[in-house]
Design goal:
2 copies of one chain form a homodimer. The radius of gyration of chain A is 33 Å and the shape is elongated. With 883 residues, chain A is an alpha/beta fold. An 8-stranded mixed sheet of chain A has the order 12-22-21-14-15-16-17-13. An 8-stranded parallel β-barrel of chain A has the order 24-25-26-27-28-29-30-31, surrounded by 6 helices. A 5-stranded antiparallel sheet of chain A has the order 1-2-5-3-4. Chain A is 46% helix and 17% strand. In chain A, helix 27 links the parallel strand 27 and strand 28. Chain A has 35 helices and 31 strands. At the A-B interface, helix 23, helix 25, helix 27, helix 28 and helix 30 of A face helix 23, helix 25, helix 27, helix 28 and helix 30 of B.
């Protein structure tokens, strides 16, 4: 027979898979001789058995629980359901990893109409006993029977009003007794059955309810967000009740062994005299600081400080401890690893190393890589009170406050007038980029985590809240409705891209540190010693490259040249180039662009002197540089109807419209773009390659060690690689010869199509490096358009669990990953030691970084502010702290 | 030392790889004791060596040629370059497979100012000798020296005018002599060098020119169109000249051993008395029928008939024979397998089996599967007399007649006025596509088999003749010159895309036969006995299904349900369904659609009674059923400016516009479509599945054996498969239970995403069959949108040889094929014996069918008219006649 029930002394701290974190912690504390109430844990295996058996107890569980209660009766000398000296228990959930507040707990179980009398007699405190009973009825009704709490709360409020009192503690025994009776009436009315008086039935139902709570919506959502497996199940701990509400020598507390916000080495927590745990949570009374105990109950405080220190040393980590004092006696109810801020996590890890409790490797593995993201953004000063007006998607972290503007041009104008602005758009397009640059933050009504707004904002390191359903924009009147509130251009907004919250007005912000704080540098240097992969950055400007370098980037993995084309002083020339009808006219425009591009490359190559800079040749379809078709259609129709079809204005716009229609594609993502552009219009790539190498030669003469790597995007066939490689090499060598400069350089390709993965051996005959463009590779492997999918079906897919993660955020190992693995094997098979990296946005996401490490990539490249995250994740991948 | 030179008696018919078809044929005839002039063949290997050595003779070739000439001198008793009895030779190209007219030939080589005199003396025919010499100068100048023929032709014309005569044969010896001198002057003037008098230099240059002609543009285009490898090279045959122009007992002819148009067993060909081969080609005189020889030279005729019969029996195939009669003596110059029409090919194959020359298997292997396509296009009624005005490339098969228009916009305007038009362009670009759609056929002056016009027309299934050199277009005057004839917009033209012929006027066309002719049925029944794979058809209507069944389809592999949604009586309800804001409103509309869909399925399931019908659930994005965004933008702008923003008309259109904008996607191909639709709006698929099974139950009660197979499109993840499978199965079983009917059915998926291939094992846990949707799979594997790519960069890619074939027409084995192979292995690994087919358009393309056979697919499914092609191709794949 499977053993489902473990008394605390039968387990230990290593058994959290079976006993849950709470059960294992209680077992460990029991073994260490700490004061823990008696009790036992029902295993996670029992929970899984419960689901397998269609929500019935698996065979043997019932008998083992009955036996467990019998043992508990023997130990405590109390009797379950007994009128004289009733055994009361708490029934608590406890998963393998902590899911605070996500699952259910029932206290005071074992009370019924008879035992409540016994408890009253035994404690000589009738008020306490009836208070405990009514609490139990409420909690049991809510958690086990699924009733709403409001009717119960309303009765209490009515009672207080009738009695003319304000606070629960002032309610007398008689009133609690009356309320308990009324509570039971509610249960009878609403469930059609009397409140269960059989304590064994109470226990059976409570255990089932805790099992059930594993699959509550909030628990599922929590697991999804925190990437916790659905298949683990929860354990259930049944423990003798101890009461913190038995008078002023009793109380209940929660404490952290160090400050979870700053990491400071000081006991941090709260204590509530004469209360049960739920009172702390409910916030009915303001708790004291834990340090106040030193004054009020010095012996207890001393004992607790001693135990807290022992637990921290024992677990080699900061603990989050729950305890109760019953009539002057301390009981430990729970200990677990403490949740903490990123700053605290890093500082604590460093301190624990210095205190000799951890080695560096373990310390590096302890800090969640993703959490470092918090450190590089402004945040809202939590000391001020504020209300959330609406919520959107936390698309790019950090907080920003500014005056609302509704167009990119307005954003620029207001910024130029010295104002802080938040750009509010239905969604953004490349036409809005100058406005995004001018804005403090971006708020959109549509769009997911990889919408244009989100991606560009993250690239810029600017806060963005995207896809806010509660936002309606009325462009005509320059006003919006946000969560029902009407706002007008110029009104102040504060957005928090870390949480997705949107607040009205201008809140105070705490700025991010201007450079890596020393403690973080120390910590990341430990990570650097451990990691195998290099960390590069995606950067399109010298400023971004400089920032990336400061944050530890060892190269530029993706410099997008199209953003250079978008700048205001070049766009007219770019448009001229696109509208050209002949190769000659196109070349004339390209000659005008050459000095601009050269200047761009000088800047970025200089910023990265001595380090490789991977420059991707033009990637997007040309119509992205022209006005939008929709806009032109409306405008030309207007011109035709107002000025007439013979007007010059109409003719001019109409000519542009026709060219845009010509270039229009059904599916531009799969159209004339990437290397196809460079093959159909070889003169474009030739100009870009010339600009790169002229820049490099210029710098070389100035003593700067420029290391350009030319990256051909979107190659899918050997012939594309061969042709573009040969053309680029020809121009590069020509320029070097013209300048009499020798310069090592490489030409490689972005692997971003399924076919490229399949024929990677053929590509590697020419390509000197591969860089996975996993954004596009994910698009084609799944057949999902990023621009569309994240706004339409991906949210539903995540909700329905068709997708576990958004594959544009977390690399899909099973599908996309299999193609990458094939590409790595075939590429290195054809060219030994081929340098391979990743420059899709996955390069800054810890679990994806770990996968890249498994694939044997040489580097990951991500946006500058994610470089520290990637450095840490790469180290954790090497030491196996990430799977 | 490599042996580069083979005398005819050193080779045999099996050596065409080395000696070319012509050389191997001459060797075989020599071995058979037939009258063949002496000569030798320079191998294809020498040609490859020539290219490897940067267009110099490979080592040893020169010496072997010199030795070959010496041997030839010995045999013939003549002497090369000798004044007394000069040896004259022909130098001809000859590739591994016949490329008629694509490469170069030089006759009468060995003539110079001295030997011409010798020839005159020896033959006693001065006119003959000088005629031969001037012919040689012209041919050598054109082929070897690259001079234009016009100046030579003009001199002849002037001469005839001066002499007052009309025909070349009337030109006397003296005139030819003068012309020869003038010809040499042209050469001196244009090349700066005298016409070569050294006969060995003549030979060396001629051999090099033939090698060179392997890479002439027209040869490359021909090979590309006919899928002949560029790497084979051509052989060169050097043969003693025999002269058909030595009097009326001389002549030259070409004959087919059977009629190449009808397959009739009768000698078919032409003979020209007192002429050289080039005169036949030039069409200066009208040749006699070969049968006339029976009367004029009965001995020669008898001998020729005898030889022709021997050759046909020897090769077990119809021969295309060139011969010359020199002073009453018959010489065989070439024999090769005859090109023939599809009808002739099938009829001949059947006859050869009946004659005991072939077994059925060999006969089935002999007919090009693709050629059967000819039988299902309109063709020109050959019973009417007509003249070919000009010839171009047969770029897309079928015949069409229409009035000539010169712009795409005109094509649309004329079509809209109810006219049939032929769009005539110098070449087409993506801007012409709307005109191509409007036209009956397309004719271009420039461009090869992979030009934009050719590729797009083939995609549309429209006749196209491309690259017609004889066409000049004068856009300004809306007129053209076609083979010298002036035509104006609106004039009638008939084009034949199967042959490349262009005729003036409106010729009568014969529509494709409504059913398989008996001879084709016989032939295909032989193929059916041999093939392993089944052949199914793609059909959306009962009529198409019926047609497919008549053409031999054994099931429906793809029935697209969206075409049913598009029908006029349903579209308003479909739009109502899409515009619905709530699930309830959507379901109301779907209830209205249910009877329509049920009726659709009744029709198609009944037509295919006893055979499987694979019905694909809704696939395209919903906005395809709504008016176009562009149209709406213009319309609402017009309404706003004319009727005002407060008008009801504006408001109504604006509401539709907004919904269309909501549904608008950047890349609809990668958007909310396929099974994503069925997951986001499960009620749509539920209605469709209900309609399918209600139809099947209805039929079952009427005794019809309905065999529905439900196909879920665009599945990429296990969870999508699991969810859609479960939903479909639930509805199906519900309906069957409601009707009390038992019916075997299956639910499977269309494998059309790279990820589906990679996770095929997971899909096969649920899917009961796979059907490769290679159109979409090709799109995502390459990252090409078919709608865009075939009209923009694919033609350029084919021209630049970045792509060997359009991957949407010929399945890409290396990339897409590798993913398919993976899917087959994983799918069958997870579910033994999993039924797998293909329903992309590749299912009707012979080489793709062969690949599907290699992959072990169970069936191919193609459009109804391609079923016969697929039946034959599948048989040829099984017997290894296709690679």
């Amino acid at each position: 027979m499977t053993k489902y029930v473990y008394f605390f002394e039968e387990g230990d701290g290593s058994m959290s898979d079976l006993l849950g974190g709470k059960g294992a912690g209680l077992a460990e504390m029991t073994a260490a001789g700490l004061p823990v109430p008696s009790g036992f844990t029902i295993t996670t295996q029992a929970c899984l058995g419960f689901y397998d058996a269609d929500k019935h107890f698996p065979d043997g569980l019932d008998a083992q629980v009955v036996q467990g209660i019998a043992t508990l009766e023997k130990r405590t000398g109390k009797s379950f359901g007994d009128h004289g000296d009733p055994l009361l228990v708490s029934v608590r959930s406890g998963a393998r990893v902590s899911m605070p507040g996500m699952m259910d707990t029932i206290l005071n179980l074992g009370l019924n109409d008879r035992t409540v009398e016994g408890l009253a007699q035994l404690t000589g405190n009738e008020r306490f006993a009836w208070d405990a009973y009514r609490r139990f009825i409420m909690m049991f009704s809510s958690v086990v029977l699924g009733l709403h709490k409001d009717p119960f709360e309303e009765l209490i409020e009515e009672r207080k009003k009738a009695l003319g009192i304000a606070n629960d503690p002032d309610i007398d025994a008689e009133s609690w007794k009356t309320l308990a009776a009324q509570f039971k009436d509610i249960v009878s009315r609403q469930t059609g059955k009397a409140f269960p008086q059989d304590v064994r039935e109470q226990l059976r139902l409570a255990i089932g309810a805790v099992f059930d709570s594993w699959n509550s919506k909030r628990a599922i959502d929590y697991r999804q967000y925190n990437k916790i497996s659905d298949s683990w199940g929860t354990a259930v701990t049944v423990m003798e009740m101890v009461f913190g509400n038995m008078g002023n020598d009793s109380g209940t507390g929660v404490a952290f062994t160090r400050d979870p916000n700053t990491g400071e080495r000081t006991l941090f927590g709260e204590y509530l005299t004469n209360a049960q745990g739920e009172d702390v949570v409910a916030g009915i009374r303001t708790p004291e600081k834990i340090s106040d105990l030193q004054r009020t109950q010095p012996d207890i405080y001393k004992q607790f400080v001693d135990i807290a220190g022992r637990l921290e040393r024992h677990y080699r980590d900061v603990q989050d401890i729950e305890f109760t004092v019953e009539r002057g006696k301390l009981f430990m109810l729970q200990t677990r690893s403490a949740k903490r801020s990123a700053e605290a996590a890093v500082r604590i890890a460093i301190d624990l190393v210095h205190e000799g409790l951890l080695d560096r490797k373990t310390a590096v593995g302890r800090v969640g890589a993703q959490s470092l993201d918090q450190l590089f953004h402004a945040r809202i000063d939590a000391s001020q009170g504020f209300a959330v007006a609406a919520k959107g998607l936390n698309a790019s972290p950090g907080a920003a406050a500014g005056q609302m503007v509704l167009t990119a041009d307005d954003a620029v104008a207001w910024r130029d007038a010295g104002k802080d602005v938040i750009l509010v758009r239905v969604e953004t397009t490349p036409d809005d980029v100058h406005g995004m640059i001018a804005a403090r933050g971006i708020l959109t009504a549509k769009g997911g985590a990889t919408s244009h707004a989100a991606v560009v904002a993250r690239g810029m390191g600017k806060p963005c809240v995207a896809g806010c359903d509660a936002l309606q924009i009325e462009r005509r009147t320059k006003s919006v409705t946000l969560g029902g509130v009407a706002l007008h251009e110029g009104d102040w907004l504060t957005i928090d891209g870390t949480t997705g919250n949107i607040m009205l007005g201008k809140l105070g912000l705490i700025p991010p540190p201007s450079q890596l704080p020393e403690w973080l540098q120390t910590f990341l240097s430990w990570a650097d010693e451990l990691r195998r992969m290099q960390v590069w950055a995606n950067a399109d400007t010298p400023e971004d490259a400089q920032k990336a370098r400061e944050l530890g980037a060892e190269g530029i993995g993706l410099c997008r040249t199209e953003h250079m084309f978008m700048q205001q002083d070049r766009l007219p020339v770019v448009q001229q180039m696109i509208l050209a009808n002949t190769k000659e006219a196109r070349e004339t425009a390209l000659r005008q662009l050459l000095p601009f591009q050269r200047e761009d490359f000088v800047g970025i190559l200089e910023a990265m002197h001595g380090l490789p800079v991977t420059i991707r040749l033009l990637d997007p379809p040309l119509h992205e540089f022209l006005p939008s078709l929709e806009h032109l259609l409306v405008e030309t129709t207007e011109l035709r109807l107002t000025l007439g079809a013979d007007s010059e204005e109409f003719k001019k716009q109409d000519a542009i419209l026709r060219r845009v229609q010509q270039l229009h594609e059904q599916n531009p993502m799969l159209g004339l773009r990437v290397c196809r552009l460079g093959i159909v219009y070889p003169e474009i790539y030739a100009m870009q390659v010339r600009a790169i190498f002229e820049a490099a030669c210029l710098l070389k003469r100035r003593g700067v060690d420029a290391r350009p790597e030319v990256m051909i995007p979107g190659v899918g066939t050997k012939e594309e690689m061969q042709t573009t490689y040969a053309s680029a090499k020809k121009v590069a060598d020509e320029v070097l010869a013209e300048h009499g400069v020798e310069l090592p350089y490489t030409i490689g390709t972005m692997v971003e199509l399924p076919r490229a993965c399949v024929v990677a051996d053929e590509l590697a005959e020419y390509a000197q490096f591969f860089s996975f463009g996993t954004n596009d590779l994910t698009q084609t492997t799944y057949g999902y358009s990023r621009d569309d999918a994240e706004q339409s079906f991906i949210p539903q897919y995540l909700e329905k669990r068709i997708l576990k993660d958004d594959p544009f955020q977390v690399l899909d190992r099973r599908g996309v990953g299999a193609l990458m693995r094939e590409a790595v094997a075939k590429g290195r098979g054809a060219r030994a030691g081929l340098k391979i990296g990743i420059c899709g946005e996955h390069g800054g996401e810890p679990s994806s970084v770990a996968f890249c490490d498994q694939l044997g990539l040489d580097y990951v490249s991500c946006s500058p502010y994610r470089v520290p995250i990637a450095r840490l994740a790469a180290a954790q991948a090497t030491i196996g702290a990430l799977d």
